[in-house]
């Protein structure tokens, strides 16, 4: 069953506090968080979070299309490298 | 920059008419046939690849010069390479993973941080995995203009301006 709308999206309070502090300071720090269950809110866009995957903090630069997802979705807990072959990386 | 890039491997024979099971490592799996002819690692063998149909975990394919099941069986485990020159050129700010892997990463002061071990993407942009002698474990650096202002493929180095708290 999905979450009731009247409750609003779930975010751990400390994530909100850290994000607000980072935004006010204007520094380009990685905000280390352990809360994979928190929802990505519009005010997080442009910030970089280090989302813990049980081993280390994976940098997640939040963009508009990630709003509403959970942080954990961008920090996989299992390692898979694959082959480089002709795969491309784009610098944003 | 590597001369040749591994784009696939042969998993064994498929059927009894000389077809092979082909594993593709390319971004678009079917694109492996476009890079034909493919060579073995040492460059002694060369094959033109024709994909006949998709199968579980890859493709059934016909290779030039391979007409029997025994010949196909002998190729089991063979990795297929393509010359780096055959890959199409990319627009600015796009790079092949193969070109980035192995580059030396230095900070804006010129201090070496490590080398690029792999390029990953978990859905929130590309990340460079950096491995260095002074690092306890690998570090993931966002592949953005802010964090990576300069990529110099000719000189084989990347200038990084990592966010605080990464290294």
Automatic annotation (TrEMBL), chain A:
Transmembrane region(s): none
A GO cellular-component term linked to this record: cytoplasm
Keyword vocabulary terms for this entry: Ribonucleoprotein, Ribosomal protein, RNA-binding, rRNA-binding
Molecular function in Gene Ontology: rRNA binding; structural constituent of ribosome
One annotated GO biological process: translation
InterPro entries: Ribosomal_uS19, Ribosomal_uS19_bac-type, Ribosomal_uS19_CS, Ribosomal_uS19_SF
Organism superkingdom: Bacteria
Gene3D superfamilies for this protein: 30s Ribosomal Protein S19, Chain A (3.30.860.10)
Functional summary from the UniProt entry: Protein S19 forms a complex with S13 that binds strongly to the 16S ribosomal RNA.
Family per similarity comment: Belongs to the universal ribosomal protein uS19 family.
Name this polypeptide is given: Small ribosomal subunit protein uS19
Species for this entry: Marimonas arenosa
Gene name as annotated: rpsS
UniProtKB/TrEMBL annotation, chain B:
Function comment: An accessory protein needed during the final step in the assembly of 30S ribosomal subunit, possibly for assembly of the head region. Essential for efficient processing of 16S rRNA. May be needed both before and after RbfA during the maturation of 16S rRNA. It has affinity for free ribosomal 30S subunits but not for 70S ribosomes.
GO molecular function: ribosome binding
Keywords, in A-Z order: Chaperone, Cytoplasm, Ribosome biogenesis, rRNA processing
Quaternary organization: Binds ribosomal protein uS19.
Name under which the protein is recorded: Ribosome maturation factor RimM
Organism in which the protein naturally occurs: Marimonas arenosa
GO cellular component, as recorded: cytoplasm; ribosome
Free-text comment about domains: The PRC barrel domain binds ribosomal protein uS19.
Gene transcribed to yield this protein: rimM
Family per similarity comment: Belongs to the RimM family.
Domain of life according to the entry: Bacteria
Pfam families per record: PRC_RimM, RimM
Primary localization: cytoplasm
Protein location: Cytoplasm
Domain RimM N-terminal: 6-85
Ranges where the Ribosome maturation factor RimM PRC barrel domain occurs: 98-166
Biological process according to GO: ribosomal small subunit biogenesis; rRNA processing
